[in-house]
Specification:
single chain, alpha+beta, YojJ-like (1, seven-stranded mixed sheet, 30% helix, 19% strand
């Protein structure tokens, strides 16, 4: 089974799969398969407001042609090519692409691309203590990672806690591995022992009345 199927299956088990979530999974696995050079990428799905992100200004020239368009309607090889093509600055080609800048691609709940080149501003410590009241001294272990990770992963998993109902997809440039975060937990990782998100049990509905409808009580005088 390929990684895209693994990610989609993880989303389905958590009852978080949607057309948009599956599409972002397609995009990030397609970016991973581009072997021209190692790349990293971060997508925040169900972005709502600017409270937990900061615009770096890269979006002004990095994402023209795609900003404010809908990911559900434009996904094809061209978007992956655009995200991973070296950028130009002052007429000179740089060594960085859109996804190399540690900036986040923000995707609204309806699939519209709000922008890229954003940084997360989430309170990491608050998120950590919310999901792990007695965390170890080592930060990455507190979130469930097997090894140390940089800002892309730590801020991404913290943001998934602060931005309610959001999914954060991260492709590591160093490891070439994809992880998905939800509610401050690891929903998907190729390292299975890292996965610490547990779907909430379904609430039992009230049992249906047996034998028809209730009759009103009558009193006699």
């Amino acid at each position: 089974m390929d990684e895209l199927s693994d990610i989609v299956n993880s989303l389905e088990r958590a009852e978080l799969n949607s057309k948009l979530a599956s599409r972002v999974a397609e995009v990030i696995t397609a970016i991973q398969r581009r072997k021209t050079y190692p790349v990293g990428a971060t997508f925040l799905v169900n972005f709502k407001d600017d409270k937990h992100v900061m615009d770096t200004g890269f979006d002004i020239y990095n994402y023209d042609g795609y900003r404010n368009r809908n990911l559900l309607s434009i996904y094809d090889k061209s978007i992956v090519s655009h995200l991973t093509t070296p950028l130009e600055e002052n007429g000179m080609q740089t060594n960085n692409s859109v996804v190399d800048l540690d900036g986040v691609v923000l995707v609204l709940g309806d699939g519209q691309i709000h922008g890229t080149g954003y940084y997360f501003l989430a309170d990491v410590r608050a998120a950590l203590h919310a999901v792990n009241p007695n965390p170890p001294r080592v930060l990455y272990q507190g979130f469930g990672f097997n090894k140390a990770h940089g800002a892309r992963h730590i801020s991404g998993i913290a943001t998934s806690y602060h931005v309610k109902d959001s999914l954060v997809f991260v492709l590591s440039q160093d490891e070439d591995k994809i992880r998905v975060f939800y509610e401050g937990k690891i929903l998907y990782s190729p390292e299975k022992n890292e996965i610490n998100y547990q779907p909430k049990p379904k609430q039992k509905s009230e049992p249906a009345l047996q034998g028809g409808t209730l009759r009103p009580a009558y009193t006699t005088t």
